[in-house]
Design a protein that fits this description.
- There is one protein chain.
- By secondary structure, this protein is mainly alpha-helical.
- It folds into 2 domains: 62 residues, no CATH class; 29 residues, no CATH class.
- Helix content is 60%, strand content 4%.
- The protein contains 4 helices and 2 strands, in the order H-E-H-H-E-H.
- A two-stranded parallel ribbon has the order 1-2.
- The longest helix is centred in the N-terminal third of the chain and has 21 residues.
- The chain starts with a helix and ends in an 8-residue tail after the last helix.
- The model has no long low-confidence stretch (mean pLDDT 92).
- It comes from Streptomyces parvus.
């Protein structure tokens, strides 16, 4: 548990930097332990809010809606990108 919390705080530090530099509306965190246990997402949020200069709302850091399937879905999206970009070109081959 200690190692996972330390890792979550490290992810929170990275999220704080992204929030300060880019100031996005949301940061979607796909860190595996935070998908398995919401306590680690809270650890990430806490570290990010503590270290960020612009973000005071921990709800700006979220888990993906795809949950544990986020990595396979992302891989499939990359593989299908040429088809999505130009559907008719896929039939020319």
């Amino acid at each position: 548990d200690r190692l996972l919390r330390e890792r979550a705080r490290a992810v929170g530090r990275a999220a704080a930097l992204l929030l300060d530099v880019l100031n996005p509306d949301l940061v979607v965190v796909t860190e595996h332990s935070s998908l398995l246990n919401p306590e680690y997402l809270e650890e990430i949020r806490g570290a990010a809010v503590d270290l960020s200069h612009v973000c005071r709302d921990p709800e700006r850091i979220v888990s993906p809606h795809a949950g544990m399937t986020v990595l396979p879905v992302a891989g499939g999206t990359i593989a299908l990108n040429p088809l999505f970009r130009s559907p008719l070109a896929a039939f020319e081959r």
